[in-house]
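Title: Prediction job returns without error message
Component: structure pipeline
Severity: low
Priority: P3
Assignee: unassigned

Description:
Job completed but the reporter wants confirmation the result is attached to the right record. Sequence as submitted:
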Amino acid sequence: MSELLGERYRALYQNYYGDGAVATKRSISAVDALAHIKAAVGSDSFDRVVDVGAGEGSLLGILDHSGFARELYALEISQAGAQAIEARGLKRLVGTTRFDGYEIPYDDQFFDLAILCHVLEHVEHERILLRELRRVARHIIIEVPIEHGLRIDRKIASGARFGHINYYLPDTVLNLLRTSGLRVIRSQMCCSSLAYEQHCAGRARGLVMAALRRSALKVAPRLAPWLFTYLFVAYCVPDAATDAPASGTAPAAT
């Protein structure tokens, strides 16, 4: 299965976490992600949680500090990322495992929750990974950027250096999940925090962008993703009924 990971992206991710600017951005993003995850899962609780594509461990650090789960596990492609995770000394982290981006070396339904946060947009064969998550986890939560708007050409150009190769709208994410054998319990389109906006765009421009993004989403939720980038969060369970595309209309984002 390892040959499914293209050499270009294998090389990119080996040195991906040596960039201090990326690490700072990921740390702020992790705080946002935890808030989105908690809103999506509601009162559900979990013993074993795996962060798939855990990077250098920013989200794991937040999960560990908050006591989100009794046991945390990490899966990561990059050796540098795996080493950075271990260096954090997280008390709830059971282990960090290198993997090829597709095959997960755990038994069926081993995890209560698998988290795939800002990973799917990097994956060359999305459904292969999603079906593997369906195998190893009872619940799955996914967060992806919604970038497939009117300026998609600019998004592709700017995202290339970060390894973004897939671009989504809410309906395309829901279709991808359904056709990967997942049933969406709850989904939501979210905005990044003001702290993240200001880190990326500066204090004044970040404030303006945050206000515009939130206003557009409130006033015109169907149009907003064509104009601005958002985050889409989906909380899923394996769909025992089918591995094939589901019929009917897509569930509305809540």
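Comment from assignee: result matches the submitted record. The first helix runs from residue 7 to 14.
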